[in-house]
Amino acid sequence: MQILVGSDHGGFALKEEMKSFLQKKGYEVVDFGTYSEEACDYPVYATLVAESIAKGEYKKGILFDGTGGGVCLTANKVKGIRAVTAYNRLTGAYASEHDDCNVLCLGGKMIGPLAAQDIIEAWLNTPFGGGRHERRLDKVKGVEKRYFN
């Protein structure tokens, strides 16, 4: 499976560590940038990742910034994206099980690499629960239709 990643300068270091972690787990990692800790704007990278996933070019992506909030906010502006910021294993698992999350957002200034690995594994290894969660996501899709047509 391919995993798309992107970050701003605040998430760059964690992104780089998680790329290595994912590659060791057998994933192909595609990096949309940024490629240094030089100050940059998170909406640029969040948009690149989100649009690529929305177009079906990739199935899952992980975005990194200082808190996970800015990239999440931006990614969720793209129709079809279900981005969630996670801070521990449970929120990573629920992002998948409850929200069928296709973009995971992590804060490089909020969590360390071991926590990030735990979150990513929970997100990748927890299946979507369907049922009541599907009904709720259908309502989210209804909101998208009202505002993104």
Overall 3D shape: globular
Q: Indicate the mean pLDDT.
A: 97
Uncertain residue ranges? none
What is the CATH superfamily label? Answer: Sugar-phosphate isomerase, RpiB/LacA/LacB
Distance N terminus to C terminus? 31 Å
Please report the number of helical segments: 6
Number of strands: 5
H/E topology pattern: EHEHEHEHEHH
**Strand proportion:** 15-25%
SSE inventory with pairings:
Elements: E1 2-7, H1 12-24, E2 28-31, H2 42-54, E3 60-65, H3 69-75, E4 83-85, H4 89-97, E5 103-107, H5 113-125, H6 132-148
Parallel strand pairs: 1-2, 1-3, 3-5, 4-5
Helix pairs in contact: 2-3, 4-5
Task: Write structural notes for this entry.
Helix 2 (42-54) packs across helix 3 and helix 4 (89-97) runs parallel beside helix 5. The protein has helices at residues 12-24, 42-54, 69-75, 89-97, 113-125, 132-148, and strands at 2-7, 28-31, 60-65, 83-85, 103-107. The protein has a single domain, classed as Ribose 5-phosphate Isomerase B, Chain: A (3-Layer(aba) Sandwich). The N and C termini lie far apart (31 Å). By secondary structure, it is an alpha/beta fold. The protein has a 5-stranded parallel sheet with strand order 2-1-3-5-4, with helices on both faces.
